[in-house]
Amino acid sequence: MTFRGGRRGLAVLAAVLVAVAGIAWIAWPSDGLPQGQDVVIPVVDGPADDQKVLIDASYFPPEGGGRAPAVLLGHGFGGSKNSVRDQAGQLAEQGYAVLTWSARGFGRSTGEIALNSPDYEVKDVRQLIDWLAKKPEVLLDAAGDPRVGMAGGSYGGAIALMTAAHDPRVDAIAPSITWYDLADALFPEASGAGPAAGVFKKMWAGIFFSAGGSGLNPASQADGLARLLTGSTGQPAPADVTPDQAQCGRFLPAICTVYQQIAATGKATPEAVDLLRKSSPVSVQGRIKVPSLIIQGQRDSLFPLGHADLNAKAIAATGAPVEVAWIAGGHDGGDAEADFVFAQTLNWFDAYLKKDGAATGQAFTVSRDGGRDPGTRQNVLLHAEGPAYAGLGGTVTSELDLLGPDQEVATPPGGSPAAISSVPGLSGLLGGGAQGGGSAGASLDLPGQVAVFQTRPLDTALTVTGSPTAEIKVYGEGEVTLFAKLYDAASGQLAVLPGGLAAPLRVTATPTGTPVKVTLPAIDRRVEAGHVLRLAITTTDMAYALPAQPSVHKVGLASTTLTMPVDAGLAAPAQGPAWWTWAFPLASVLAAAVILLTGRPRRADVAPDPALAEVPLEITGLAKRYKNGHKAVDDLSFRVEKGQVLGLLGPNGAGKTTTMRMMMGLIHPDGGEIRIFGEKVVPGSPVLSRLGSFVEGAGFLPHLSGRDNLTLYWQATGRPAGEAHLEEALEIAGLGAAVERAVRTYSQGMRQRLAIAQAMLGLPDLLVLDEPTNGLDPPQIAEMRRVLKAYATEGRTVIVSSHLLGEVEQTCSHAVVMHRGRLVSAGPVAELLRRGELNGSTRLEDVFLDLIGEKA
Amino acid sequence: MTATGYAPGRTLPLRVEFVRQFRRRRTMVMFGLLAALPWILVIAFQFGPNNNRAGNGLRISDLAMEGGLNFAAFALSVSASFLLMVAVALFCGDTVASEANWSSLRYLLAAPIPRDRLLRQKLVVALAYSAAAVTVVPVMAVLAGTLAFGWNDVRVPGTGEVIPALDVLPKFGIVILYAMVTNLVVASLAFLLSVSTDSPLGAVGGAVGLVIVSTILQAVEALGGLREFLPTFWNTAWLDALAPVPDYSGMIKGTAIAVTYAAVLLAFAFRRFRRKDVVS
């Protein structure tokens, strides 16, 4: 028993340890990512290839050895190679040789910012590819031509596009949230007039420019890198900042000059447009011919989805594979979905660099609001996928009727106060901002500055994916700057401006009305049934440069049609319940079945012995050892015949009670067997119904009366009430009126008598009583003796245990003497006394002491 | 051969066990407390010092005075996390351990009631009492809330949308059922402890302890997704059923977790009881 118990304890301990280890293994933070080696790569660039620049880079050799494809990972504007260190480490873990670098003018690299110009940054990166080609870990397509992919966000995405156009060695790119035409990004115009007539996106331009201008001045940067090369650790000498540097930061002077010009006037000059376009994929149309994964953000008023659309179309026109993903976040904040972007990028490179996996398989992926996760209570995103990228016009369109009269809108002097659609940089400062594509609360139109046209409430929900279009007319004189926004409005709720996006227009108004076709910002949004779409045309927007001169114009509808593009091919993957919601209960029920089936007591040889059918009790070779090792009963055998009153005698601890418990099926014997009327006793043996028992004290429900206790006990046996002989039993208990009181009020003796009465319920053929006279007063003891003797006369059998010898002598016909779990003697009481006579004393007490070997 | 009229399948009828348990002070006090709780809350709302009905918060407690059903949702939300757990742990943890404590268990077993049957009947009765306990609070809260605040449509916490009262009633049924299901884990653990110990308080306390530990672990963000598998994690998922667009995914997960734990724990309880030496 100890052995078994110990083994079970060990098993439980082992199971607990395994569970803890499993949880720890899952929850433990993985060991650190590869940190990479810092390298300084000297490059030469400039229009005349005469400018020496030191590029501060980090090289992450691929994990797993062998030659692996390389990935160039670019950083965003204002960042440095450290901004992408984690992604680089992760890519290296996935078996890519990764090179990150601080672009010229950023971080510790020298040189000045040229906005991804083909003369500067592109040349730098081509030399980084040369450098990669010399690394022994990098897979080569040909001598000097490594297998290389480029990825990065924003500024780092643009350099991927630009390098792919200028260097045929680039094999695949995955640019995200970046531009197609920088001029159009800073001077957008939604009626198609082009950047020359565009409205200056002054807040973003300012943030963009200051991000490049802030930080350390170029002199100390270069100095820092020089010290890095020479290994000196001395502090850099404080450098004087010239007025030029204060003004332009680390920008190339030419760019700085152009910026100052456009920022001062709010108008794009042809030189500015040329300069910006030179740094834009628009200038290299048709030259990017590599597999491209274009990722763009839905909350991005700097580089809206239209840029990704044009990039994708230009690349797809060359026949190269292109996939497009619209993520939830963007430059305006929201969920940047770093994990999703990384997974998609990795998948893309696996397919086109390692060439060992399939591409994402879906040409178009859109992140949509997936409601709240019921567990974490956080908003979750769904990724709707489509087999083809339809562009901003959708696969089909849905036309809605716009209603609304001509309305007058005022342009305030100085452009203030101004409406708010999104506040560039603000959501970034707030740490992500609102999720799910909405911008509730952030958009605000000012009365008097806005004309509103509305659809009727939608009959059915409509999911718009792309750029809605509308046609308006502007009446009046002169040029007017307008902003078109499309709200999703419902009664009782704040109207939502999807993505916080506004489309700027510059219109020359005429008294008869100038018709303008407005291409609204591309969005992906489900407009619920009952909602209306509200087209708002305002004269102001905080994010843009606004005319200073006040004016009033009238805005009306040129057409009542609002065209909504719909991508019918997009479908969210089925969101069935998590696999474990059915697997776990199933496994658990199976485990439960196994636990129950293996725990079934063996049903071997319980067949009744017909020869013993008339023998109330036969015990053979009974043994019981408790868990603490104490041998309570050891090889006990005796037999009780009908009509006997048997005394089970022995000092305390002789094993009397244990034997009786085994008779009742409460304790499993370790060896031997007990047969009652020929049937083997196991827990719950039906033959126990012929046994009445009282062992080790009474057991009653204290809140019930004595009578209720007996009645309910009898009902619990399931036998007919007529069999109970309840009144006879109560008479034996002799409780009188107390039988109606709650048992908790009883004295020890009353409980004892009630318990004996309970044992006698149904007049069982075998009555087993453990120390029945304990706690009874002398008259009650005498009465009890009489009752027991009388009980046995009708062919019934009584077994009484006692350590009081006088008791046995007066009550019992037969006695079994036990000591330390063993049988010492068995036989008629008279025979025992005769044995005592031989030893000189007929007192049972002396016989007993003699038998157990403790006679003085 | 057995005694006249004895059949193992007829032992310990459910009715008998119901009566045995029902007349206990413990049962009465618990039901009295659960039935009184909504009235105490009503009094607290009616006479609290900040009794301004114009409160414009949208938390579930802010909306409690909107009407009977809103009040019931509030009452359930404050009691489900602990009080109902304790009630369930009490009914399931005490049932076998108290018999062992009173020594009446050995006489039931020697009657003889087969061990599996004894356990099954006791489990059924304990679960029935637990289910009744879980039902009493919301039903009484609807009654008390309707009398105090009127029979009004439901305002959804968080969004403030209004749903007609009659649309919500069947969902309330689902909520109550779900509350019962989530309590299965506590019930089965309490039951397992109940067959393992002679101390009723130990069994109840052990099960309540599990709730406390699980709730603490739930607060450890570092565990991430593993927390979904804690037995108490989904206990508030029923709130999703009252939303304008009900989301049952959390409740499905919660049900799966509850069934998973409960099946294994109950199997262990039966296995243990079969093999146990009853020495109390």
TrEMBL record, chain A:
Coiled coil: none
InterPro entries listed in its UniProt record: AAA+_ATPase, AB_hydrolase_fold, ABC_transporter-like_ATP-bd, ABC_transporter-like_CS, Galactose-bd-like_sf, P-loop_NTPase, Xaa-Pro-like_dom, Xaa-Pro_dipept_C
Keywords for the protein's UniProt record, in alphabetical order: ATP-binding, Hydrolase, Nucleotide-binding, Transport
GO molecular function: ATP binding; ATP hydrolysis activity; dipeptidyl-peptidase activity
Residue span, ABC transporter domain: 617-845
Protein family membership: Belongs to the ABC transporter superfamily.
Protein name, per record: Alpha/beta fold hydrolase
Upper lineage: Bacteria, Bacillati, Actinomycetota, Actinomycetes, Streptosporangiales
Automatic annotation (TrEMBL), chain B:
PANTHER family for this protein: INTEGRAL MEMBRANE PROTEIN-RELATED (PTHR37305), MEMBRANE PROTEIN (PTHR37305:SF1)
Pfam families, A to Z: ABC2_membrane_4
TM stretches of this protein: 28-48, 68-92, 123-152, 172-193, 200-220, 248-270
Swiss-Prot/TrEMBL keywords: Membrane, Transmembrane, Transmembrane helix
Metal-binding listed as a keyword: no
Keyword Transmembrane included in the entry's annotation: yes
A molecular function (GO) term: ABC-type transporter activity
Protein name as it appears in the record: ABC transporter permease
GO cellular component, one term: plasma membrane
